[in-house]
Amino acid sequence: MNLKERVLNNICYTELVYQRVNKKLATSYSKKEIEGMLLTIIKDTDSSAFIEKGKNVYISN
Fold first, then answer.
1. Rounded to whole angstroms, how far apart are CA atoms 23 and 42?
2. Above 90 in pLDDT, residue 1?
3. Sign (positive/negative) of CA torsion 48, 39, 17, 1?
4. If we measure between CA atoms, which residue out of 16, 30, 23, 60 comes closest to residue 42?
């Protein structure tokens, strides 16, 4: 299983995720909107753009 598949199979969200997204984007998206946007970004991003550093995964798109 490649890194992209692992991310898609194990994605989870905490309250901190929602807060950080809204703060960084200066918005007030709902949880569903944030989850939908992140899922779309992950699915649309090529597997070669996924980089694992320690326990973190970084995606460049």
1. 20
2. no
3. negative
4. 60
